[in-house]
Design a protein that fits this description.
single chain; about 45 residues
């Protein structure tokens, strides 16, 4: 099974906001996730 399929079965209320390739770079992954979550939070405030 593919990763997104498993997520959708296990966490029905979760949605993928965007896909980012980070190539096992933990720092970049953290920064990208933080930026995405801040942008999502800001869009909800509007």
């Amino acid at each position: 099974m593919r990763f997104r399929h498993i997520l959708s079965e296990e966490f029905q209320n979760m949605r993928i906001l965007r896909l980012v390739e980070v190539r096992d770079d933990r720092e970049r992954a953290y920064e990208e996730a933080s930026q995405t979550l801040r942008a999502e939070e800001n869009s909800r405030d509007m």
